[in-house]
Description:
This protein is α/β, with parallel strands linked by helices. Helices cover 43% and strands 16% of the residues.
Amino acid sequence: xxxxxxxxxxxxxxxxxxxxxxxxxxxxxxxxxxxxxxxxxxxxxxxxxxxxxxxxxxxxxxxxxxxxxxxxxxxxxxxxxxxxxxxxxxxxxxxxxxxxxxxxxxxxxxxxxxxxxxxxxxxxxxxxxxxxxxxxxxxxxxxxxxxxxxxxxxxxxxxxxxxxxxxxxxxxxxxxxxxxxxxxxxxxxxxxxxxxxxxxxxxxxxxxxxxxxxxxxxxxxxxxxxxxxxxxxxxxxxxxxxxxxxxxxxxxxxxxxxxxxxxxxxxxxxxxxxxxxxxxxxxxxxxxxxxxxxxxxxxxxxxxxxxxxxxxxxxxxxxxxxxxxxxxxxxxxxxxxxxxxxxxxxxxxxxxxxxxxxxxxxxxxxxxxxxxxxxxxxxxxxxxxxxxxxxxxxxxxxxxxxxxxxxxx
Length: 409
């Protein structure tokens, strides 16, 4: 599966700072100091209704992580999956009377278009669950053969008790885990399971549903969590720098994925930091496909909204915060974009050297984008009120805003 084209990231004078970011697993900030190549895995979409503003906010957060790393003169190895076979996708295809493969391909293509328009840096490896199946089957067999998994009526389940570190990503109590498991694709009430929280690794073939050859597992399809584990281990290995996604993935997805990988390798942790973006609401409720209260990037683009303004609307909120999308949020972003573009359109201006360092400091401080935007606002206001004689300043501001914030002026 191919990703989308990369926009050029301008090089800035000097060097950026190491990123201090909130790690869900430890509950506090950690300083990420990767080697020459920083490694990040971000969970991708289930392509049956892409791309809403919650998606955009999540991928914007991890795009910023990459930009901070690139500014430290590191390379970035970024991997993202596409869950192109799963119950929600199949259910939507049945509801709409369409082929599930065609639905997945259509929505994945739209997601690529939206990511390109928003100037999100693409992953080096963009892998679908279906194409990952040949690598998933051997992992499930290994877990089963080692006693970390078991069979139940043809399905294969992972035993959470096989990982002594289970629970150390979310730190949720058992009651909350069980509630979230039921809410987010698990089956805690299924009779015969060793532990209600045990997640499915391999679902035996069901009548009328797609299935693949699972070798000794029999025909079927993979569970949700093992998909990401197989892709991450194949392309990044254990101990990569950041596991990213929305906060709704903390449990069960990231908790279970970590346990799968740790049981497979005997190593801990799977990722050095678990980083999660907040949820975006509309009319007081979290934006979700099930509620149908979605604001789509593609719809805004069709309505003539500049993608740079959409990105500025996302950047106006701290990535970890839950927030609400409103018309005013977008209007403010459109106005800000106009002010910034007018400011950099002049042939000279006040020095921008200090602004570049302000942007670096704000972003290295747990991706503090509101502070970064305020710094550019101050430069633009000074440019409007007083101007300046530095002929290089407008160009440097444009390059800095592009390189660090992903906004083309």
